[in-house]
Amino acid sequence: MATIQPKVSEPASDELALVQAAKAGDIGAFEDLVRRYDRNVFRIAQHITQNREDAEDVVQDAFLKAYSNLKQFQGQSKFYTWLVRIAVNEALMKLRRRRPERTVSLDEEVKTEEDSLPREVADWSPNPEQQYTQAELRDILTRTIQGLPASFRTVFVLRDVEGLSTEETAEALDLSIPAVKSRLLRARLQLRERLNRYFQKREGADGKLRPASGEANQ
Amino acid sequence: MKCSEFLQELTNYLDGVIDDRTKAELDDHLAWCHNCYVVCDTTKKTIEIYRDSKLYELPEDLRTRLRTAIVSKCKTSKPGPERA
After folding, report:
1. Whole-angstrom distance, CA of residue A153 vs CA of residue B56
2. Given an 8 Å threshold on Cβ–Cβ distance, is A192 in contact with B46?
3. A2 domain-assigned
4. Which of A24, A136, B29, B84 holds its CA 20 to 30 A away from the CA of A194?
5. Cα–Cα distance between A218 and A214 in angstroms, integer?
6. Rg of the Cα trace of chain A?
7. What is the residue range of B32's domain?
8. Measured between CB atoms, which of A34, A56, A141 is closest to B50?
9. Is residue A113 part of a domain?
Protein backbone atom coordinates (compact mmCIF):
# COMPACT_ATOMS: atom_id res chain seq x y z
CA MET A 1 0.00 0.00 0.00
CA ALA A 2 1.33 3.42 -0.90
CA THR A 3 2.46 5.71 1.87
CA ILE A 4 0.93 9.08 2.63
CA GLN A 5 2.73 11.79 0.72
CA PRO A 6 3.59 14.67 2.98
CA LYS A 7 2.46 18.05 1.72
CA VAL A 8 5.21 19.89 3.52
CA SER A 9 6.77 22.68 1.62
CA GLU A 10 10.19 23.97 2.44
CA PRO A 11 10.19 27.57 3.59
CA ALA A 12 10.91 30.02 0.83
CA SER A 13 14.55 31.00 0.82
CA ASP A 14 13.61 34.60 1.45
CA GLU A 15 11.98 33.73 4.77
CA LEU A 16 15.06 34.26 6.88
CA ALA A 17 15.61 37.59 5.16
CA LEU A 18 12.04 38.61 5.99
CA VAL A 19 12.53 37.63 9.62
CA GLN A 20 15.80 39.59 9.78
CA ALA A 21 14.15 42.64 8.23
CA ALA A 22 11.19 42.40 10.61
CA LYS A 23 13.61 42.13 13.54
CA ALA A 24 15.18 45.35 12.36
CA GLY A 25 11.75 47.01 12.51
CA ASP A 26 10.52 46.58 8.93
CA ILE A 27 6.79 46.13 9.45
CA GLY A 28 6.22 45.44 5.75
CA ALA A 29 8.46 42.38 6.03
CA PHE A 30 6.49 41.18 9.03
CA GLU A 31 3.26 41.75 7.12
CA ASP A 32 4.59 39.41 4.42
CA LEU A 33 5.13 36.77 7.09
CA VAL A 34 1.56 37.30 8.31
CA ARG A 35 0.30 36.86 4.75
CA ARG A 36 2.29 33.69 4.41
CA TYR A 37 0.99 31.95 7.52
CA ASP A 38 -2.28 33.56 8.65
CA ARG A 39 -4.43 30.89 7.02
CA ASN A 40 -2.50 28.10 8.75
CA VAL A 41 -2.63 29.79 12.14
CA PHE A 42 -6.37 30.39 11.77
CA ARG A 43 -7.01 26.74 10.86
CA ILE A 44 -4.93 25.42 13.74
CA ALA A 45 -6.56 27.85 16.17
CA GLN A 46 -10.08 26.95 15.12
CA HIS A 47 -9.36 23.24 15.32
CA ILE A 48 -8.10 23.65 18.88
CA THR A 49 -10.59 26.21 20.21
CA GLN A 50 -13.55 25.02 18.11
CA ASN A 51 -14.74 28.59 18.16
CA ARG A 52 -14.52 31.13 15.37
CA GLU A 53 -14.17 34.26 17.53
CA ASP A 54 -11.49 32.64 19.64
CA ALA A 55 -9.64 31.63 16.49
CA GLU A 56 -9.71 35.23 15.24
CA ASP A 57 -8.29 36.40 18.57
CA VAL A 58 -5.61 33.72 18.45
CA VAL A 59 -4.47 34.84 15.00
CA GLN A 60 -4.05 38.42 16.24
CA ASP A 61 -2.50 37.51 19.58
CA ALA A 62 -0.10 34.95 18.12
CA PHE A 63 1.26 37.29 15.45
CA LEU A 64 1.55 40.16 17.93
CA LYS A 65 3.39 37.96 20.39
CA ALA A 66 5.65 36.73 17.61
CA TYR A 67 6.42 40.30 16.61
CA SER A 68 7.14 41.42 20.16
CA ASN A 69 9.40 38.44 20.76
CA LEU A 70 11.00 38.28 17.34
CA LYS A 71 14.43 38.97 18.76
CA GLN A 72 14.18 35.77 20.76
CA PHE A 73 13.75 33.76 17.58
CA GLN A 74 17.22 32.41 17.04
CA GLY A 75 16.64 30.61 13.76
CA GLN A 76 17.42 27.08 14.96
CA SER A 77 13.94 26.04 13.91
CA LYS A 78 11.77 27.26 11.05
CA PHE A 79 9.94 30.50 11.74
CA TYR A 80 6.68 28.68 11.05
CA THR A 81 7.34 26.03 13.73
CA TRP A 82 8.15 28.77 16.21
CA LEU A 83 4.97 30.64 15.26
CA VAL A 84 2.85 27.48 15.56
CA ARG A 85 4.20 26.93 19.05
CA ILE A 86 3.04 30.41 20.06
CA ALA A 87 -0.34 29.95 18.35
CA VAL A 88 -1.00 26.56 19.98
CA ASN A 89 -0.28 28.02 23.43
CA GLU A 90 -2.61 30.95 22.78
CA ALA A 91 -5.33 28.61 21.51
CA LEU A 92 -5.03 26.30 24.51
CA MET A 93 -5.32 29.28 26.84
CA LYS A 94 -8.56 30.27 25.11
CA LEU A 95 -9.86 26.73 25.37
CA ARG A 96 -9.05 26.57 29.09
CA ARG A 97 -10.78 29.88 29.68
CA ARG A 98 -13.89 28.69 27.90
CA ARG A 99 -13.95 25.32 29.59
CA PRO A 100 -12.57 25.91 33.07
CA GLU A 101 -14.36 22.83 34.33
CA ARG A 102 -12.17 20.62 32.19
CA THR A 103 -8.44 20.41 32.39
CA VAL A 104 -7.04 20.89 28.94
CA SER A 105 -3.49 19.75 28.59
CA LEU A 106 -1.39 18.35 25.83
CA ASP A 107 0.18 16.04 28.38
CA GLU A 108 -3.03 14.24 29.19
CA GLU A 109 -2.81 10.53 28.65
CA VAL A 110 -6.26 9.61 27.53
CA LYS A 111 -7.23 6.10 28.54
CA THR A 112 -5.14 3.12 27.54
CA GLU A 113 -4.16 1.59 24.24
CA GLU A 114 -7.53 -0.18 24.26
CA ASP A 115 -9.40 2.94 23.19
CA SER A 116 -7.76 2.95 19.80
CA LEU A 117 -8.19 -0.68 18.86
CA PRO A 118 -10.53 -0.92 15.89
CA ARG A 119 -13.91 -2.25 16.95
CA GLU A 120 -15.54 -2.12 13.60
CA VAL A 121 -13.76 -3.22 10.47
CA ALA A 122 -15.76 -2.48 7.36
CA ASP A 123 -14.56 -1.47 3.96
CA TRP A 124 -15.48 1.97 2.68
CA SER A 125 -16.94 2.95 -0.65
CA PRO A 126 -14.28 3.73 -3.27
CA ASN A 127 -14.72 7.51 -3.00
CA PRO A 128 -16.55 7.91 0.30
CA GLU A 129 -16.35 11.69 0.36
CA GLN A 130 -18.26 11.91 -2.92
CA GLN A 131 -21.37 10.45 -1.32
CA TYR A 132 -22.03 13.77 0.36
CA THR A 133 -22.38 17.38 -0.64
CA GLN A 134 -19.52 19.69 0.30
CA ALA A 135 -21.56 21.13 3.16
CA GLU A 136 -22.53 17.69 4.50
CA LEU A 137 -18.96 16.49 4.30
CA ARG A 138 -17.67 19.56 6.12
CA ASP A 139 -20.26 18.98 8.82
CA ILE A 140 -19.27 15.31 9.21
CA LEU A 141 -15.54 16.06 9.33
CA THR A 142 -15.94 18.97 11.75
CA ARG A 143 -18.10 17.10 14.21
CA THR A 144 -15.95 14.00 14.01
CA ILE A 145 -12.67 15.74 14.79
CA GLN A 146 -14.29 17.87 17.50
CA GLY A 147 -15.07 14.67 19.38
CA LEU A 148 -11.38 13.89 19.87
CA PRO A 149 -9.54 14.96 23.04
CA ALA A 150 -7.67 18.25 22.50
CA SER A 151 -4.29 16.55 22.79
CA PHE A 152 -5.08 14.10 19.97
CA ARG A 153 -6.81 16.70 17.83
CA THR A 154 -3.87 19.07 17.99
CA VAL A 155 -1.29 16.45 17.04
CA PHE A 156 -3.45 15.22 14.14
CA VAL A 157 -4.00 18.74 12.80
CA LEU A 158 -0.33 19.69 12.94
CA ARG A 159 0.94 16.43 11.46
CA ASP A 160 -1.73 15.40 9.00
CA VAL A 161 -3.54 18.59 8.06
CA GLU A 162 -0.74 21.14 8.24
CA GLY A 163 2.00 18.75 7.22
CA LEU A 164 4.53 19.42 9.99
CA SER A 165 7.06 16.63 10.51
CA THR A 166 7.00 14.52 13.68
CA GLU A 167 10.03 16.44 14.95
CA GLU A 168 8.47 19.84 14.22
CA THR A 169 5.22 18.78 15.88
CA ALA A 170 7.13 17.61 18.96
CA GLU A 171 8.96 20.93 19.09
CA ALA A 172 5.82 23.02 18.57
CA LEU A 173 3.91 21.14 21.28
CA ASP A 174 6.81 20.56 23.64
CA LEU A 175 6.20 16.82 23.54
CA SER A 176 8.61 13.94 23.06
CA ILE A 177 8.72 12.24 19.66
CA PRO A 178 7.27 8.96 21.05
CA ALA A 179 4.42 10.97 22.61
CA VAL A 180 3.64 12.61 19.26
CA LYS A 181 3.69 9.24 17.51
CA SER A 182 1.47 7.60 20.10
CA ARG A 183 -1.10 10.41 19.99
CA LEU A 184 -1.03 10.51 16.21
CA LEU A 185 -1.70 6.78 15.91
CA ARG A 186 -4.60 6.98 18.32
CA ALA A 187 -6.02 10.11 16.71
CA ARG A 188 -5.90 8.54 13.27
CA LEU A 189 -7.50 5.30 14.46
CA GLN A 190 -10.22 7.05 16.42
CA LEU A 191 -11.12 9.32 13.51
CA ARG A 192 -11.24 6.32 11.21
CA GLU A 193 -13.51 4.48 13.60
CA ARG A 194 -15.85 7.45 13.91
CA LEU A 195 -16.01 8.01 10.15
CA ASN A 196 -17.00 4.37 9.57
CA ARG A 197 -20.68 5.04 10.03
CA TYR A 198 -20.68 7.60 7.26
CA PHE A 199 -18.34 6.03 4.77
CA GLN A 200 -18.74 2.28 4.93
CA LYS A 201 -20.20 0.38 2.02
CA ARG A 202 -23.90 -0.30 2.29
CA GLU A 203 -26.17 -2.35 0.15
CA GLY A 204 -29.70 -1.21 -0.60
CA ALA A 205 -32.70 -3.48 -1.19
CA ASP A 206 -31.93 -3.44 -4.90
CA GLY A 207 -28.43 -4.69 -4.25
CA LYS A 208 -26.78 -1.38 -5.19
CA LEU A 209 -24.27 0.21 -2.88
CA ARG A 210 -25.67 3.17 -1.00
CA PRO A 211 -24.05 5.75 1.21
CA ALA A 212 -25.41 6.26 4.70
CA SER A 213 -27.43 9.24 3.52
CA GLY A 214 -29.02 11.57 6.01
CA GLU A 215 -26.74 10.66 8.89
CA ALA A 216 -24.79 13.83 8.42
CA ASN A 217 -27.48 15.81 10.14
CA GLN A 218 -28.08 13.55 13.08
CA MET B 1 3.18 -10.78 13.25
CA LYS B 2 0.04 -10.22 15.31
CA CYS B 3 -2.63 -7.67 14.37
CA SER B 4 -1.84 -5.64 17.51
CA GLU B 5 1.81 -5.46 16.45
CA PHE B 6 0.76 -4.36 13.01
CA LEU B 7 -1.36 -1.58 14.50
CA GLN B 8 1.53 -0.31 16.58
CA GLU B 9 3.50 0.17 13.38
CA LEU B 10 0.62 1.57 11.35
CA THR B 11 1.61 5.23 11.64
CA ASN B 12 5.23 4.55 10.70
CA TYR B 13 4.06 2.34 7.85
CA LEU B 14 1.71 4.96 6.41
CA ASP B 15 4.34 7.67 6.79
CA GLY B 16 6.95 5.46 5.14
CA VAL B 17 9.42 5.80 7.99
CA ILE B 18 10.31 2.16 8.62
CA ASP B 19 13.24 0.00 7.67
CA ASP B 20 12.95 -2.42 4.74
CA ARG B 21 12.77 -5.52 6.92
CA THR B 22 9.85 -4.21 9.03
CA LYS B 23 8.10 -3.01 5.90
CA ALA B 24 8.39 -6.47 4.35
CA GLU B 25 6.88 -8.01 7.49
CA LEU B 26 4.02 -5.52 7.45
CA ASP B 27 3.38 -6.07 3.73
CA ASP B 28 3.34 -9.80 4.37
CA HIS B 29 0.80 -9.36 7.17
CA LEU B 30 -1.39 -7.15 4.96
CA ALA B 31 -1.34 -9.76 2.20
CA TRP B 32 -3.25 -12.30 4.29
CA CYS B 33 -5.01 -10.25 7.01
CA HIS B 34 -8.04 -8.63 5.42
CA ASN B 35 -9.05 -6.78 8.60
CA CYS B 36 -5.69 -5.05 8.93
CA TYR B 37 -5.75 -4.28 5.23
CA VAL B 38 -9.11 -2.54 5.63
CA VAL B 39 -8.00 -0.66 8.76
CA CYS B 40 -4.85 0.47 7.00
CA ASP B 41 -6.68 1.49 3.83
CA THR B 42 -9.47 3.38 5.62
CA THR B 43 -7.00 5.10 7.96
CA LYS B 44 -5.11 6.30 4.92
CA LYS B 45 -8.37 7.58 3.42
CA THR B 46 -9.21 9.30 6.71
CA ILE B 47 -5.94 11.24 6.57
CA GLU B 48 -6.37 12.13 2.91
CA ILE B 49 -9.97 13.29 3.36
CA TYR B 50 -8.98 15.61 6.21
CA ARG B 51 -5.93 16.84 4.35
CA ASP B 52 -7.94 17.67 1.25
CA SER B 53 -10.91 19.10 3.12
CA LYS B 54 -11.26 22.83 3.17
CA LEU B 55 -12.20 23.06 6.83
CA TYR B 56 -11.84 26.45 8.43
CA GLU B 57 -10.72 28.45 5.45
CA LEU B 58 -10.05 32.07 6.32
CA PRO B 59 -12.37 34.30 4.24
CA GLU B 60 -10.54 37.07 2.36
CA ASP B 61 -12.43 39.95 4.01
CA LEU B 62 -11.75 38.63 7.50
CA ARG B 63 -8.18 37.97 6.49
CA THR B 64 -7.66 41.57 5.44
CA ARG B 65 -9.34 42.83 8.61
CA LEU B 66 -7.14 40.68 10.86
CA ARG B 67 -3.96 41.62 9.02
CA THR B 68 -4.75 45.33 9.22
CA ALA B 69 -5.37 45.01 12.96
CA ILE B 70 -2.15 43.06 13.49
CA VAL B 71 -0.02 45.53 11.55
CA SER B 72 -1.52 48.54 13.29
CA LYS B 73 -0.92 46.99 16.73
CA CYS B 74 2.64 46.03 15.75
CA LYS B 75 3.35 49.67 14.92
CA THR B 76 2.53 50.71 18.47
CA SER B 77 4.15 47.74 20.22
CA LYS B 78 7.73 47.66 21.33
CA PRO B 79 9.89 44.71 20.36
CA GLY B 80 10.82 42.56 23.33
CA PRO B 81 14.36 42.14 24.63
CA GLU B 82 16.89 40.00 22.85
CA ARG B 83 17.55 36.66 24.49
CA ALA B 84 20.55 36.76 26.74
Report:
1. 14
2. yes
3. no
4. B29
5. 7
6. 20
7. 3-74
8. A141
9. no
